[in-house]
Amino acid sequence: QVQLVESGGGLVQAGGSLRLSCAASGSIFRLKAMGWYRQAPGKQRELVAAISSDGSTNYTDSAKDRFTISRDSAKNTVRLQMNSLKPEDTAVYYCYMIRFTTYLWGQGTQVTVSS
């Protein structure tokens, strides 16, 4: 059974940085896009960043110029480097990977940015 394990969340002051990692375990091949969603209290889940199998990336407007997504396809890992964090970035962050047409999800990791 495939599992996505996230790490790297935590508490940071505004202006600080965090790096989230997500690694897939189990029998994995032909992963397509990978990325990160987040969900803040009382808000809908939103896509933060995505990276396709060819390395092209996509960011939500609020993450552009601050966040960088990267992947290591050989290790089935996706990372999100978050700089210049703001209190509005506070949320639970979920990684995902697309295997054929199925979405695989991580368990979520809390990111809290204090002002």
Helix and strand element order: EEEEEEEEEEE
| Tally of contiguous helical segments | 0
Question: Spans of 5+ residues with little confidence (pLDDT < 50)?
Answer: none
Major β-sheet profile: 7 strands, mixed
Word description of this protein:
By secondary structure, the protein is mainly beta. Helices cover 0% and strands 57% of the residues. It is built from no helices and eleven strands. It has strands at residues 3-7, 10-13, 18-25, 31-39, 46-51, 57-59, 67-72, 77-82, 91-99, 102-105, 109-114. The strands form two sheets. Strands 2, 4, 5, 6, 9, 10 and 11 form a seven-stranded mixed beta sheet that branches. The radius of gyration is 13 Å and the shape is globular. It starts with a strand and ends with a strand.
Briefly summarize what is shown.
The chain is mainly beta and 115 residues long. It has strands at residues 3-7, 10-13, 18-25, 31-39, 46-51, 57-59, 67-72, 77-82, 91-99, 102-105, 109-114. The protein is 0% helix and 57% strand.
